[in-house]
Amino acid sequence: QRLGIKLYAGEKVKTGMIIIRQRGTKYLAGKNVKQGSDDTLYALKPGVVSFSTKLKKLFNGSQRTVKIVNVK
Q1: How much helix, strand and coil, in percent to the nearest 5, is found in the chain?
Q2: How far, in Å, are 1, 53, 69 from residue 57 at the CA level?
Q3: Which secondary structure element, helix H or strand E, spans residue 70, and what is its range?
Q4: pLDDT in tens, 24-40
Q5: Of 3, 12, 45, 50, which has the most beta carbons under 10 Å away?
Q6: Strands 18-21, 33-35: parallel, antiparallel or unpaired by DSSP?
Q7: Whether 30 contacts 70, CB under 8 Å
Q8: What is the pTM of this model?
């Protein structure tokens, strides 16, 4: 299928527009972003797309760097 980033950082987004199509959770949903049943990330509110990174603690105590998608 046509997977990947559909809207990059700094681009305007409307409600319901798809930001990223993915298999698995390579990118996590942040503020004003929702994850669909097929792991697709889409916008809940209109705004501007931004990306950030964060350390997430896993269930076994280790950490991994995750990419988070936000709409501001």
Answers
A1: 0, 50, 50
A2: 31, 13, 18
A3: strand 63-71
A4: 999 999 999 999 999 99
A5: 50
A6: unpaired
A7: yes
A8: 0.89
